[in-house]
Amino acid sequence: MIPFDFVYYKPDTLQEAVDAYRDAYARGLKPLYYGGGTEIISMGRVNSIRTGAVIDTKDIPECGALSVGNDMIVIGAGVTLSRIHESGCFQLLGHAVGRIADHTTQCKITLGGNICGTIHYRESVLPLLIADSTVILYGPEGFREVPIRDVFDRRIKLNHGEMIAQVLVDKIYASLPYVHVKKAPIEKIGYPLVTVCALKQNGRISAAFSGICPFPFRSREMEEALNDNSLTDVKKAAAALKCLPAQPLADESAGGDYRKFILHNTLMQTLETLGAVS
Question: Full-prediction pTM beyond 0.90?
């Protein structure tokens, strides 16, 4: 049971959602946009999140869109992880979100909710980073279309009152060779010790990571090491590890050195798999 009261808004359009946000904010209610609500509910129960208003975006048409056009894959922020996985629209993303939580929870968690969440793994963002995805945002100033790399740096960085409406992925990325590896204490659904998502395009590997540091990330320096063909695969993996953007995460699940050991082996697996394809 959530131990505080809040106002519930159910807008039908993006503009109604933003208007609700403005209204709630003006009343001092510290509003939150609500997709699947799993994090708000679970963290609200233990008082890790408190809000006076939630704005449920599930019925907004743009947020529920999922389509594959001639050139672009369109995924609404309100599309659930299970629907993405089952659609097969972008298999790397489908594999990544298909390993977040259990199936029942995947039927509630939305893409936008996972990207914007405070739990630091946020594995759905990894394929989007290496596919150079575009994010469609909507806020008090209207629409804003930006590359995900410009608004996601360790976490999503939105303007006041803004929400994610959709994510666009160039269809070419759905046909590229890829690797998805998740290592977790509970292998199927646990939080990751290490997750690696990688694509190979025009002979180069792009990769993004979760679990190893206390935030998900794509590192150009690590990619340079992984694509340095003057090195053996063992040295590529070792060089990439030296480029981590922060100290490895150490918690009750695993220490930093153990996470680095797992990542080294996972990078070797990734290099071997993608090295076998052109």
Answer: yes
